[in-house]
């Protein structure tokens, strides 16, 4: 596969704090601060090229994090200090939505619905629908949860961790037992269930249709489902593998001598991209003894990257040789 020659171009001259791509990589959000003001921007090639959707006073001692709803219509801004505070934004209207809570112990979007927001109070989860401003009082006790096919999937941990279906009547049916850990659900292909174990940095994949539902439990600092096939690309930072979800096979692709910082699929061909120290590379996935490797970006410390669905552009968040953070675009195809 041949990529265009070229260099990254900055997409903003502001001082960036973080960036987050949506499920459609042509749309992403980033946080800047200018003097005493924090700004949230959305960049979207299908709408306005760049627009500010929110501003608030900037607190230099706090950290800020963004997450997207599954339908890419809402952004959640988390401001972390001693406690976390949350701001919900409708990016279609550049509008802030009033949340029905103040004191919470957890907030995240439901990965199984377009835009429902789960929030936890007194160890119980409730649901907020930002489209209707309605609270759906479920009061579900769980470490984490998501919806799927009209049910909820929960994980609870005591002596071990248990993944269960929970129906509308509150009746649970066990899917799988897992080693005791701190698990969180993440997006995956249907019908599989994917969890991240955050303490020991592992990825777990379950297939609830199988008698033995546990299909994968591997160390992984990075992992990504393929958009084309039931494949998971994963790495512990050195060993890089592909998990074939339909068969349960795990195939080792390569072992890096230097740790990687980010990893992802290239959407058009059998190729992966990975970041190491100050560079981003493309690596062909073929059956040759020596795989072709192409340096795409040089001289940038990369924290995360994403690729447009048509494969034409590589975007990354990181800092240049002067230590300035930014979002950059590197053209890969015409």
Number of DSSP strands?
A: 32
Number of helices: 0
Q: Which structural class is indicated by helix and strand composition? A: mainly beta
- Between the first and last Cα atoms, what is the distance in angstroms? 13 Å
* Rg of Cα set: 21 Å
Task: List low-confidence stretches.
Answer: none
Instruction: Estimate the helix proportion, in percent.
Output: under 10%
Strand order of the largest sheet: 1-32-31-30
Portion in beta strands: over 45%
Overview of the structural elements:
The protein is mainly β and 334 residues long. It has no helices and 32 strands. The strands form 8 sheets. A 4-stranded antiparallel sheet has the order 1-32-31-30, with no helix packed on it. A hairpin with a 3-residue loop joins strand 7 and strand 8. The two termini are 13 Å apart.
């Amino acid at each position: 596969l041949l990529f265009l020659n070229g260099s990254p171009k900055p997409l903003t001259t502001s001082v960036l704090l973080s960036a987050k791509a949506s499920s459609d990589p042509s749309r992403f959000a980033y946080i800047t601060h200018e003097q005493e003001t924090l700004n949230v921007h959305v960049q979207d090639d299908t709408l306005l090229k760049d627009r500010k959707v929110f501003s608030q006073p900037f607190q230099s001692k706090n950290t800020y994090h963004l997450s997207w709803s599954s339908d890419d219509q809402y952004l959640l801004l988390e401001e972390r200090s001693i406690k976390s505070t949350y701001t919900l934004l409708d990016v279609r209207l550049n509008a802030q939505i009033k949340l029905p809570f103040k004191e919470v112990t957890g907030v995240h979007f439901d990965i199984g619905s377009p835009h429902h927001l789960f929030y936890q109070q007194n160890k119980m989860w409730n649901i907020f629908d930002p489209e209707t401003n309605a609270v759906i009082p479920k009061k579900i006790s769980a470490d984490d949860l998501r919806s799927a096919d009209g049910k909820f999937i929960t994980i609870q941990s005591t002596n071990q961790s248990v993944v269960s279906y929970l129906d509308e009547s509150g009746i649970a049916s066990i899917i799988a037992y897992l080693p005791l850990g701190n698990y969180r659900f993440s997006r995956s292909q249907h019908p599989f269930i994917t969890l991240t174990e955050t303490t020991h940095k592992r990825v777990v994949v379950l297939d609830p249709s199988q008698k033995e539902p546990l299909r994968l439990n591997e160390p992984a600092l990075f992992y990504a489902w393929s958009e084309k096939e039931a494949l998971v690309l994963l790495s512990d930072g050195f060993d890089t593998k592909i998990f074939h979800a339909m068969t349960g096979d795990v195939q080792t692709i390569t072992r890096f001598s230097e740790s990687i910082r980010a990893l992802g699929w290239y959407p058009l061909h059998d190729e992966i991209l990975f970041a190491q120290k100050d560079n981003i590379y493309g690596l062909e996935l073929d059956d040759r003894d020596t795989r072709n490797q192409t340096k795409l970006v040089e001289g940038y410390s990369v924290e995360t990257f994403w690729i447009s669905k048509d494969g034409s552009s590589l975007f990354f968040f990181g800092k240049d040789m002067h230590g300035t953070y930014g979002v950059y675009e590197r053209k890969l195809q015409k």
